[in-house]
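agent: user wants the structure for Mammalian cell entry protein from Mycobacteroides immunogenum. delegating to structure tool.
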Amino acid sequence: MRWLTRIFVALVVLTVVGLSAVAGALYWHRADTVASRAAGETLIKQAGKQVGSIFGYDYQTVERSLDEQYPGLTPEYRREFEDKANREIIPQAKQRKIVSQTSIVGTGIIAAHRDSAQVVVYMNRTITDQSRTPVYDSSSIQVDYTRVGDKWLISYITPL
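agent: tool returned. relaying tokens verbatim.
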């Protein structure tokens, strides 16, 4: 009779542990889903504003325009982007007197997780230089985000 009691107690303990594990997994999945959905909703708006500001500039204020965007980048990507801006974007903009105007056509979530996300941004851009002949460009851009504290920062921008 003792062995029946031991088996019964063991089964009850295993059942409680198993149900606790399932409940914990379901809770964590729900919390992750809610966080992912919130990230997606936030980044849909943020990506359009940031990409429009990064790619839209005037040769007379390009340095200031880009300086204002650096805090929205992760430290690693900021170094890379700042280097590219100082080597290519700013000198070309000033030399050719470029004015780049952007219009964000749409944004969409590629993937969203608790601490990272990928957003696609559809953008039309009009680029005018000293020749005054506008060049029209339509682009799709993937923007990778990383959550740092309570902020979402751009960790990479990739033309598609």
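agent: one observation worth passing along. The two ends are 71 Å apart (CA to CA).
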